[in-house]
Write a structure and sequence with these properties.
The chain is α/β, with parallel strands linked by helices. It is built from 20 helices and 13 strands. It has helices at residues 6-12, 23-29, 47-61, 92-106, 125-128, 133-139, 146-150, 153-159, 165-168, 170-185, 197-211, 251-259, 263-273, 278-290, 296-326, 332-336, 340-349, 357-362, 366-373, 379-388, and strands at residues 18-19, 33-38, 65-70, 120-123, 187-193, 218-222, 352-355, 364-365, 392-394, 397-398, 405-406, 416-421, 425-431. The chain has a six-stranded mixed sheet, with helices on both faces. A five-stranded mixed sheet has the order 7-13-12-9-10. It has a two-stranded antiparallel ribbon with strand order 8-11. The radius of gyration is 27 Å and the shape is elongated.
C-alpha cells in the first residue's frame, strides 16, 4: 500500500502531534526504514503503548520498512520520561522474559512475511550490551553536552527531587539506538509517543554530530491517549489497566472497555486503533449519530480491535459473554455455547451464589433451592413466583411447577447453572 502519505494518514487519524520539518516530503520521495522502541518493563503492553505501535503499522502500510526495537538494554536503566521517581531495576532474566512476550504482541500488528518491506525485530541489548563503559563515553558521550541533556523536559522536571546518573544517561542510550540503526540498518525515522520527543531528537542530534549536518534523520510522535477532559485513557472505571495479555485483561473485559466508551472517545479511537479507511469510518460515525442507542460506533471499534489483539476465538468468546450477560432474554443455547472458561469469567464479573453438589446429586426441590439461595424469602413466596407470576426460570426455561427437582443434569460443565426471577433478576449458581 505504498501510495499512502504517511504524515497525512497520521494527521487525519489523530496520530500526529509533532514531526521534524521535512519529514513528509522526504518520506514521499523514497521508501525509508523507521523504528519504534518499546522497553519491556512488563511482560505485556497496554493500549496506551499501542497508539505508537499503530504509527509503525501505518509506516509499513505506506511502503516503508518498519523495525520494532525491544529495549532489552534500556529496560535495565529505566526511562525517566513522565515519571516523578526512580524506576525499580529488574533482573536480566525478567527483562529477557518480558522482551520475548512483547515481541509476540508486536507481531500481531506488523507484517513480517511480506516480500517488499517486511518488519524486523531488534533488541538493543545486542549492541548496547556488548559496549564497554569507556567505549560508550568516548564514542557517544563526547558528542553531547551536559547543557543539551539538561534542557530535556524529562530531566528538568526531575532535577529538584533528584535523578540518578543512570536515568540521566538514558537519553544517550536511546539516542545511540537511533544512531546504530541509522548506521547499520539504514533507519531514517523514529516514531513514538510525545513523551519520548526529547529522547528521540537526542538521537537525530547525535546522528548529525557524528555523521555531519547533511545526515537525514527524522522523527514523528503521536499524542498521548486522553479523553475529552485531557485525562489519560486506558483504564476501566475501577482503575484496572487495559493490557493486551489475555491473562491480565480478558478478551471480554477488553471488548467491554471499548463498548462502554463515550461517543467522543470512540470517534477518536476508531481512527487510531483500526485500519478502516476514512470513508468507512465517517460512514460508521454518521450511522451512529442517526441511532446512538444502538452503539454501532462502539461495537465496530470493539470488534475490530478485539479481533486484532485476541483473534477470532477471543472475539467470539467476548461476544458470547456479552450476549449472555446483557441479553436478559437469552435462550438456553446461549448457555450451552459457553465453555468452562467462559463460565469462569462470568463468575469473575458477576455475583455468584453457591449450592452444595451433593444436594443436586440427590435431587433438590426447586422451592428448597430458591429459599436456601435467598432468591425468595419463603416457600410461599416461591410458590407464588412459580404458580401465579410464572417468573422463575431454570437455565432460561420456565419452571414447570413447585414439584420440579434440580439435578446435576441441569448443571453445565458439572459446575454452573442459572436461575432467574422475573426479567431483571438473574443469578449464576456455582455448584461445589
Amino acid at each position: 500500500m505504498g501510495n499512502i502519505n504517511f504524515i497525512e494518514e497520521l494527521t487525519w487519524r489523530g496520530l500526529l502531534q509533532d514531526a521534524i520539518p521535512g519529514t513528509e516530503e522526504y518520506l514521499l520521495a523514497q521508501p525509508v526504514s523507521g523504528y519504534l522502541g518499546v522497553d519491556p518493563t512488563r511482560d505485556t503492553i497496554h493500549i496506551g503503548n499501542l497508539v505508537s505501535v499503530m504509527m509503525l503499522v501505518h509506516l509499513q502500510r505506506a511502503g516503508h520498512k518498519p523495525f520494532a526495537l525491544v529495549g532489552g538494554a534500556t529496560a535495565m536503566v529505566g526511562d525517566p520520561s513522565g515519571r516523578d521517581s526512580e524506576r525499580q531495576l529488574m533482573s536480566v532474566e525478567q527483562i529477557q522474559y518480558n522482551a520475548s512476550c512483547v515481541k509476540n504482541q508486536l507481531a500481531q500488528f506488523l507484517d513480517f512475511d511480506t516480500k517488499i518491506n517486511p518488519a524486523e525485530m531488534v533488541n538493543n541489548y545486542d549492541w548496547l550490551g556488548q559496549m564497554g563503559f569507556l567505549e560508550f563515553l568516548r564514542d557517544v558521550g563526547k558528542h553531547m553536552t551536559i547543557s543539551y541533556m539538561l534542557g530535556k523536559e524529562s530531566v528538568k522536571r526531575r532535577l529538584e527531587g533528584g535523578i540518578s546518573y543512570t536515568e540521566f544517561a538514558y537519553q544517550l542510550l536511546q539516542g545511540y539506538d537511533y544512531y546504530h540503526l541509522y548506521k547499520h540498518k539504514g533507519v531514517q525515522i523514529q516514531v513514538g509517543g510525545s513523551d519520548q520527543w526529547g529522547n528521540i531528537v537526542t538521537g537525530t542530534e547525535l546522528i548529525r554530530r557524528i555523521e555531519g549536518h547533511e545526515a537525514k534523520a527524522f522523527a514523528a510522535v503521536c499524542p498521548l491517549l486522553t479523553d475529552e477532559q485531557g485525562k489519560k485513557m486506558g483504564k476501566t472505571a475501577g482503575g484496572k489497566q487495559i493490557w493486551l495479555d489475555p491473562k491480565q485483561t480478558s478478551p471480554y473485559e477488553f471488548y467491554q472497555y471499548w463498548l462502554g466508551m463515550g461517543d467522543p472517545e470512540a470517534e477518536k479511537c476508531i481512527k487510531i486503533f483500526t485500519l478502516k479507511d476514512r470513508p468507512t469510518i465517517e460512514g460508521i460515525i454518521e450511522a451512529h449519530q442517526q441511532a446512538p442507542h444502538l452503539r454501532q460506533l462502539q461495537k465496530e471499534l470493539g470488534e475490530a480491535i478485539t479481533k486484532r489483539v485476541h483473534g477470532e476465538s477471543g472475539l467470539a468468546s467476548a461476544l458470547k459473554l456479552t450476549e449472555f450477560l446483557f441479553n436478559k432474554n437469552s435462550k438456553i443455547d446461549a448457555l450451552k455455547a459457553l465453555s468452562i472458561e467462559d463460565w469462569q469469567e462470568v463468575v469473575e464479573v458477576q455475583d455468584t451464589l453457591m449450592l452444595d453438589k451433593q444436594k443436586l446429586e440427590a435431587g433438590m426441590n426447586i422451592l428448597d433451592a430458591l429459599t436456601e439461595l435467598g432468591i425468595v424469602q419463603s416457600k410461599s413466596e416461591g410458590r407464588r413466583s412459580i404458580e401465579k407470576d410464572q417468573s422463575i426460570r431454570i437455565n432460561t426455561e420456565k419452571c414447570e411447577g413447585t414439584d420440579q427437582t434440580l439435578t446435576m443434569e441441569d448443571v453445565f460443565h458439572q459446575r454452573f447453572l442459572q436461575l432467574q426471577k422475573g426479567k431483571k433478576r438473574r443469578y449464576i449458581i456455582e455448584v461445589r
